[in-house]
């Protein structure tokens, strides 16, 4: 727990490894035993046919909620499935207590289809600022971590996003058409131009990791749910990248952003992408 006069940085120095352990155990106990073994009754729809939830999502979130609150008494958890059940709980992100932001299975559609492209996302924030993040892809056995001001790492190796190759089309992962409004689709059309190669995204967490490790150049996303973005945005920042909304401001996990927004390997690329998004609007 954060004790009297203890900073969140001091808490992380002592307990970041415990968070990592909780994330790995949630995946081992609740997610991987169900991968490619889901029964029909273990999969439900939420807002529509492409918005899925499984018993793995629910049980992994319950596991993480218990473990993270035990590590940091007085904190709160804002998890995707708990917010679906009680939308008012999302306000925890805007509160004064430390908040764990949890997406137990990011890329549920991929998980349901038996694909490998899913991950577990956990971020720790305070006052609207993300201080640490964990991105775990259990099938790939990859763990990316970041602590504000201390860099981003993949399996212990420091990540450097670098800059895009100027002789190659800009590789941009965009919000899937199934989850965009007509106005957002028009904005994303700005990326349909020479020198840019947009494609529909998969798991948001893995797309952020791809930017942080320099495998992809940028994202262009149209939704604000903090559990999809908090962990990855810090990962990109600490790898040397940048994130901007169409208003030219960093994305705020507390909301009120001018969408779409981008996370990119460097600030110049972020400004290029937001310029194209504004042109398409």
UniProtKB/TrEMBL annotation:
Keyword Magnesium attached: yes
Name assigned to this protein: inositol-phosphate phosphatase
InterPro entries listed in its UniProt record: Inositol_monoP_metal-BS, Inositol_monophosphatase-like, Inositol_monophosphatase_CS
UniProt keyword annotations, A-Z: Hydrolase, Magnesium, Metal-binding
This protein's record includes keyword Magnesium: yes
Catalytic activity: a myo-inositol phosphate + H2O = myo-inositol + phosphate
Gene3D superfamilies for the chain: 3.40.190.80, Fructose-1,6-Bisphosphatase, subunit A, domain 1
Organism: Streptomyces pratens
Coiled-coil regions listed in the entry: none
Record-linked Pfam families: Inositol_P
EC number, as in UniProt: 3.1.3.25
